[in-house]
Specification:
Number of strands: 8
Largest sheet: 4 strands, mixed
Strand content: under 5%
Radius of gyration: 24 Å
Length: 638
């Protein structure tokens, strides 16, 4: 149950608000300019080549002898480790070498995890580059199977460690060789109440590839293959979603209805996937004894349920003064009583827009980072200099954006679908925030570098905030300031309000699934209920929108992940308030927080900043910032 570094693929961000890429895909993910886009917009990013990542730092290619040798080395290392240590950990730690001997075993385990993680990372990144390519799909599936077969020989280790008595482990950790792993061991012990008998754990592990992973892969490949008929053009999901940010009403409407039409034609499959994965999770939760549908996620996030409950309650109570109020204001700007669902992320009316070239985006983000911390900018700059970023839109490429940490012995990689929109620049800032965090945390090693999702999103959202503030300060006119404020408010609503609504949707779905399968109609009813509550009466959720739950990948890949975005956004708002009021020494403390990786609990990490997420008033600080921005917008001339 303890995740390796390679497994903690951080915050895949779907561009402006909702999902496996930032807050679980909004109804507007960025993509290639199409559908009669103005020529100037279409050529803005084409004028300069966008970077594609160079994965040779992991392996030279899918047929690389080095890769195949490492696969065999990993298998042999796993078998040898099991032979050397299974059933012997208590004797090891209580023997003459005590903690030093067990510490050496943990160190060897960590080395093997790093090797496995390198291979797994390469497989997933190659696949993300083109999920429609049968050769890549087979390669990815074969890698998963071989690593599952190898790592089954490691499964005993954490299970057996957790069966050791506290006093035995505590005595062993007096030796520095084992003591350095204290944070990992203490985290591991939190899993102990939910640990099953070894053979059941082995069964769960072996079945993960042909069960949950297979259904997730089916979702990915289906979503990548879908085509949406927009004014006679068959488009993939990225460009279709992007059209709902077009300046023209008819284009947004056509795209929105095209999405609804294709989603509705595939409801049967997406309903089956959702029901199957929800049941799979229910079985696992029931066997492990988790008391709540989201308990497993809270445990992996190392956050108390009462903290999440307090956050969700505070955000839901704020819906009327945040999202309801803002969308009513936006409808007024459009001269309408309400906005259609395809207008929710529309650009402001009568506002000139321009595409932002890659070079300008790079300088904007790095400049914002450098003003805060030269070290932060230097680390982020390496991503550009060494081709650690894959930016262009390509057929079959994984939608949205993410930052993959890979393993400490290598380095992170960032995937984007860059189209030159202002939100794309914010996405770049977001993912580079993850990247900087992952580079800094790597020094903790494969076992302790991974950061709980709630804290992983802090670095990314903070990177966005730095970039936004830099752009806002450079605004030359009140109109420019209004545009930036409105975009930021929308992003924060997408991150805080929408993600909380997604979390509520998941809670309803997983709770009801315990009583039997949910029909597509029932899933649509729940979706409309939570969206109506969160967005308010100024957004008209017309026919077709009931199907939009189908394309949120976090529901499939990472149940209940979504609240981490709201957690991170509110936390960053509070952190930034501290930064504004007391800048001296803040950057150093912030970088130290990122470098801690997964070695400290959120309470310990936030204490140097005078913040405590367990205090119900904590959440109001973050929400108040959004409130104040909306108030400023209300006072501006339209």
């Amino acid at each position: 149950m303890s995740a390796s570094f390679s497994a903690s693929l951080s915050a895949p961000r779907a561009l402006s608000s909702d999902s496996l890429r930032h807050p679980a895909w909004p109804d507007a993910v960025h993509a290639a300019p199409v559908f009669g886009a103005p020529a100037a917009a279409a050529s803005a990013t084409a004028a300069e080549a966008l970077p594609e990542w160079n994965l040779t730092d992991l392996y030279p290619g899918m047929d690389s002898p080095q890769l195949h040798a490492d696969l065999e080395t990993a298998r042999e290392a796993c078998v040898a480790f099991e032979t050397a240590h299974k059933g012997k950990l208590e004797a090891l730690v209580t023997g003459p070498d005590g903690g030093a001997a067990l510490g050496a075993a943990v160190s060897r385990y960590e080395e093997i995890e790093d090797l496995i993680g390198r291979i797994a990372s390469y497989g997933s990144l190659v696949y993300a580059g083109d999920t429609s390519d049968p050769a890549r799909a087979k390669f990815y599936g074969d890698i998963q199977e071989r690593l599952t077969e190898a790592s089954i020989h490691l499964l005993f280790f954490t299970l057996e460690l957790n069966r050791l008595e506290d006093r035995v482990l505590e005595a062993g950790m007096a030796d520095p060789a084992l003591g350095r792993y204290r944070p990992w061991i203490e985290d591991l012990r939190k899993d102990k109440p939910y640990q099953l008998e070894d053979r059941i754990e082995q069964l769960f592990h072996e079945k993960s590839s042909p069960s949950r992973s297979a259904w997730s892969r089916l979702f990915d490949e289906t979503m990548s293959s879908l085509r949406f008929n927009v004014d006679g053009q068959d488009l993939a999901i990225e460009p279709t979603l992007n059209l709902m940010q077009d300046t023209r009403d008819e284009v947004r409407k056509t795209a929105g209805l095209a999405l609804a039409d294709t989603f509705s034609k595939n409801l049967r499959l997406f309903t089956l996937i959702t029901n199957t994965l929800a049941k799979d999770k229910e079985i696992s939760d029931r066997w492990r004894g988790f008391p709540d549908v989201a308990s497993a996620r809270h445990l992996s996030n190392r956050v108390e349920q009462e903290v999440v409950d307090a956050m969700v309650a505070a955000i839901r109570a704020a819906f009327p003064r945040l999202s309801h109020r803002y969308y009513a204001l936006k409808a007024k700007w459009f001269g309408k009583d309400h906005l259609e669902f395809w207008d929710r992320n529309a650009p402001l009316p009568k506002v000139a827009t321009r595409d932002i070239g890659w070079g300008e985006a790079r300088e904007t983000v790095l400049g914002a980072y450098r003003t805060f911390s030269p070290q932060m900018a230097d680390i982020a700059g390496v991503f550009f200099d060494k081709n650690w970023i894959d930016a262009p839109v390509r057929p079959g490429k994984s939608p949205g954006a993410f930052a993959h940490p890979t393993v400490p012995s290598a380095h992170p990689f960032v995937l984007l679908n860059y189209q030159g929109k202002p939100r794309d620049v914010m996405t770049l800032a977001h993912e580079l925030g993850h990247g900087v965090h992952q580079v800094l945390a790597a020094r903790q090693g494969a076992l302790m570098a991974p950061t709980p999702l709630t804290l992983a999103e802090t670095a990314s959202v903070f990177g966005e905030m730095l970039t936004f503030r830099r752009l806002l300060e450079a605004a030359e006119t009140p109109q420019a300031r209004r545009i930036m404020l409105a975009q930021k408010v929308e992003d924060m609503i997408n991150t805080v309000v929408r993600q909380t609504a997604f979390y509520t949707f998941e809670r309803h779905v997983h709770t009801e699934r315990r009583e039997g399968e949910l029909t597509a109609d029932r899933l649509g009813e729940i979706w409309l209920q939570v969206q109506s509550e969160s967005l308010g009466p100024a957004i008209h959720l017309g026919p077709g929108y009931e199907t939009f739950w189908t394309y949120i990948p976090h529901f499939i890949h990472s149940p209940f992940y979504v609240y981490a975005y709201a957690f991170g956004d509110c936390l960053v708002n509070s952190l930034y308030a501290v930064y504004e009021n007391a800048q001296d020494g803040f950057a150093e403390r912030y970088m130290q927080m990122l470098a801690a990786g997964g070695t400290k609990h959120h309470a310990e990490l936030l204490a140097p900043f005078g913040l405590d997420a367990r205090d119900p008033a904590f959440w109001q600080t973050g929400l108040s910032l959004i409130d104040r921005m909306i108030t400023e917008l209300e006072g501006m001339q339209s």
